[in-house]
Amino acid sequence: MSAKESAIVQFDNVGLRYGTEREVLSNISFTLFPGRFYFLTGASGAGKTSLLKLLYLAQRPSRGGMRMFGTDVITMPRDELPGFRRRMGVVFQDFRLVDHLSAFDNVALPLRVSGVRERDLAGPVNDMLDWVGLGHRADARPATLSGGEQQRVAIARAVIARPEILVADEPTGNVDPEMALKLIRLFEALNRLGTTVVVATHDYQLIRKVPESLIMRLDKGTLSDPTGALRYPPKRAPSGVEA
Amino acid sequence: MPWVIAIMVALCVLAAGGALALSNLAASARGELAGSATVQIIEADNDLRAEQARRIAGLLREDPAVTGLRMVPGSEVAALLEPWLGSGEAVDAVPLPALIDLELAAEVDDAALAELENRIAAYAPSARIDSQETWLAPVLDALRTLQIMALSLIGLLAFAGAAAVWLAARNALGGNRDTIEIVHLLGGSDAQIASVFQRSILFDAIAGGLLGLVLGAGAMTLLANRFAALDSGMVAGGSLSAIDWVILATVPLFAVVIAVYTARMTVLASLRKLL
After folding, report:
1. How far is B5 from chain A (nearest CA, A)?
2. What is the structure's pLDDT at B86?
3. How far is the alpha carbon of B262 from chain A, nearest alpha carbon, in Å?
């Protein structure tokens, strides 16, 4: 198997503009490999969230090519996209919890969408809530949870279905350092199980906690490569992936 | 939403019930009068008129197109005309036509009647045959027009009901946009999201449909009782049969199907705007 074939995400000269404005992302090209841990850094307004939106298929690029899980997602029929989204977990910057659902039901959403039977939900959802320290708040609505608690529910929802790729937009922005470290350890644990993790953050303290991670830096819509993450083959090829 | 559907269904039940009653009325009138005709012999001389009537009756009895014949007595003719001519000696001096009621064979058409009229003209040049269906035709045409109007009304109500559901679904979509986007981004398919709205509209439509059926059927029953009190032979022909009531009971089913289908199409059209 070649490295190119095993790539989980490939961006080829991607550009993104909203309406007739100038491009917010220009000439973005990179390859993400399975089982790697990536940080996406950059100042506010650099285009991190826009790049993540392309990654979790909320947006199509204005130009360029995108392949995910070995498939061209630009020309893919729209009705096949939900199947791809189910293979991802997303932690949104603004959490995007469903207000009228309890913490339990919010975390259970990806499983329900995937067709898991109701009687099989309670075990994994309660385990996940315990893991993020919210087992006692399972019945709480998002409005009654603190910002940090909401963020942990959002993270639990993103990882409950054991995604192949986890995309997190500033996932530790609203939690204390201790919880931030705990969440990063959770991401690392998922990563060790084979999930590719992409975390957007401008918290360099956090990045240092994951020494094996690769870093992509966005600056005014263009991507740079401080750790060789974007090289082909990557500077630090993951074990099991042919470089 | 259930109230809107209930009103639409009640109006549909009334319109459909009206259309069915008119259809029954027309069928009843047509059935009673089909195959019957009246020979009218107009002659000022009483004796000559009686002789012409007797000879024409003799001729008609032999004709295979005629299956039954009744000479209408002069007293019955006078009674029929009494509202217009009054009674008394002065009226007795007015020459009344002689009438013969005919029952015709099923295959007798307008051409056969014209031929029959030519034959009896040899005995009474002023005699003519009036088919009952001919003079009933304008009434039947009017009933048919009313039926078409009732069916058009049903179509308009179905359209208005679908439009109401469309608006309700769009409002619901607007109110739940965030939730829909989240489920969409978590991998929810359009069909899964649409099914949530369908289910919600389904329950509303069932509740509204049943309520509308009760209201509509109640109004129909009330109207039926009022018309029955008129004790008119023609109106009695417009009563609803058991099958008609079964047909009316299916109106809510159609309303539910239209509502659910409209909701589904509205939601799917809206979701297609998302990636």
Report:
1. 27
2. 73
3. 21
B19 and B116 assigned to the same domain: no
Looking at this predicted complex, what is its ipTM? 0.85
pLDDT at B242: 86
Residue A3: per-residue pLDDT: 47
Tally of structural domains, chain A: 1
Instruction: Find chain A residues with C-beta within 8 A of B181's C-beta.
Output: 96
- pTM listed for this prediction: 0.68
Domain membership flag for residue A150 = yes
pLDDT class for A55, splitting at 50, 70, 90?
Answer: very high
| Region of poorest pLDDT, from A24-38, A91-105, B162-176 | B162-176
Neighbours of A121 (CB within 10 A): 17
Note whether A83 contacts B272, CB cutoff 8 Å: no
A113/B185 touch (CB, cutoff 8 Å), yes or no: no
B57 within a domain of the structure (yes/no): yes
Q: Any alpha helices (H) in B176-241, and if so which ranges?
A: 177-185, 190-228, 233-236
Cβ–Cβ gap A58/B185 under 8 Å: yes
List the one residue out of A96, A100, A159 whose CA is nearest residue A127. A159
State which residues form the domain around B20.
2-30+136-271
| A242 pLDDT above the threshold of 50 | no
A→B contacts (Cβ < 8 Å), by residue, are 56-60, 78-79, 81-88, 90, 96-100, 109-110, 113-114, 157
Tokens 């991607």 belong to which residue?
A14
Q: Which of A78, A81, A110 sits opposite B186 (nearest CB)?
A: A110
Which of A85, A88, A98 shows the shortest C-beta gap to B179? A98
A37 or B132, which is more confident? Answer: A37
What is the tally of structural domains in chain B? 2
Distances (CA, A) of B239 to A142, A243, B228: 60, 86, 8
Q: Residue B148 — φ and ψ, nearest 5°?
A: -60, -40
Q: How high is the mean pLDDT of chain A?
A: 85
Residues of the domain holding A154: 99-162
* Residue A110 located in a structural domain: yes
Q: Judge: A113–B187 Cβ closer than 8 Å, yes or no.
A: yes
Nearest to A50 by CA among A222, A240, A243: A222
pLDDT above 50 (res A243): no
Check if B177 contacts A (Cβ < 8 Å). no
